Amino acid sequence: MAKRRTDLARAGRSTGGTRRKTALSPYYTTSIGEAYLGDSLDVMAKLPSESVNLIVTSPPFPLTFRKKKPYSSVGEDTFVSWFTPYAQQFRRLLKTDGSLVVDLGGVWNKGVPTRSLYQYRLLLALCDQVGFHLAQDFYWYNPAALPGPAEWVNVRRLRVKCAVNQVFWLGKTEWPKATNRGVLQPYSADMLRLITKGYKAKARPSGHNITAKFQQDRGGSIPPNLIEIGNNDSNGHYLKACAAADLPVHPARFPRGLPEFFIRLCTTPGDSVLDPFAGSNVTGEAAERLGRRWVAIELAEDFLRGSRYRFSSVPVLPLDVADRRA
Ligand SMILES: C[S@@+](CC[C@H](N)C(=O)[O-])C[C@H]1O[C@@H](n2cnc3c(N)ncnc32)[C@H](O)[C@@H]1O
């Protein structure tokens, strides 16, 4: 553990090696991960520069702010100015070839069937003001998404179901570390047939020149920037364990496949992954399974407490003991 935690062990120490007054103390750890309770702006300020390979996160969307969920009181109109100091810390923490991946749900404007432009404003600010580079924009398609808002979609039938989130992959530089070999998908039945039976090299009507190289088995097909993963887990270990412990299940989890995709795309085993808005720490679980070091930061203690159930090695304290610690 001590060896693996080198980067974080340095956190809270000045360059001279003396400990700052406010050293970091994790809420729980695994052999390769650390979860912190607190405002990520405060916690990140104590982490060393250029210590993180990948930040993958889903910040609280303005929608949740508006509904006054326990996350924050920031509104859609002030989202960008609220997020900017966090983004500046992200950039400081990332290694030169590091990546930031931000999952953002869309938001409806109040009282009218039009959509907020907050994601686009955020993207422009991240690139033009903070200095990130858009490596690629992705869509996460959740086929299990429910229709809404009811007024526009179900009642007046003016709009259709929203089932995609925008996911921006940004590099600290224009050349973030990446390999699509980490995210190859199984070949389709048609492609497998071409590989085994062969393909006559020719120019397609579209103008694409399909050469004999096309039929080589390269280990899988290159995925598109549309990631399809249903977000309908209703029976997982985390859910059951939270229910048994009478802890709230996080209401805005993303599926493990989402952080897993970007961890595979942008990192190699042993690299470090940070989620500064960790919620139920899906990112930490994905990183742990893939052998990447991870750091999770979450503001709400109940969510962080429940997230321990994702890690079999983490002793789950009886609630009264956890309460005394808190
Ligand atoms: C959309 S949720 C993340 C859910 C997470 N991806 C998951 O799958 O469980 C955003 C989380 O950010 C947390 N949060 C909001 N402001 C924060 C802050 N300043 N520092 C740390 N966490 C914060 C909220 O409590 C909430 O759990």
Describe this structure in words.
This protein has 326 residues and is an alpha/beta fold. It folds into 2 domains: 25-185 and 222-325, Rossmann fold, CATH 3.40.50; 188-221, no CATH class. It has 12 helices and 11 strands. The protein has helices at residues 6-9, 40-45, 62-66, 79-93, 118-130, 150-155, 189-197, 237-245, 257-266, 282-289, 301-307, 319-325; strands at residues 28-29, 33-37, 52-57, 94-104, 133-141, 164-171, 202-203, 209-210, 226-228, 272-275, 293-298. The strands form 2 sheets. A 9-stranded mixed beta sheet has the order 1-2-11-10-3-4-6-5-9. Helix 4 (79-93) crosses helix 5 and helix 9 crosses helix 10 (282-289). The longest helix is centred in the N-terminal third of the chain and has 15 residues, at 79-93. Bound molecules: S-adenosylmethionine.
Q: Can you tell me the CATH class of the largest domain?
A: Alpha Beta
| Helical fraction | 25-40%
Strands ordered across the widest β-sheet = 1-2-11-10-3-4-6-5-9
Strand composition percent: 15-25%
Number of extended strands: 11
Bound molecules: S-adenosylmethionine
Low-pLDDT ranges: 1-21
Search tags:
single chain, about 325 residues, alpha/beta, Rossmann fold, 2 domains, 9-stranded mixed beta sheet, two-stranded antiparallel ribbon, 12 helices, globular, disordered N terminus, binds S-adenosylmethionine
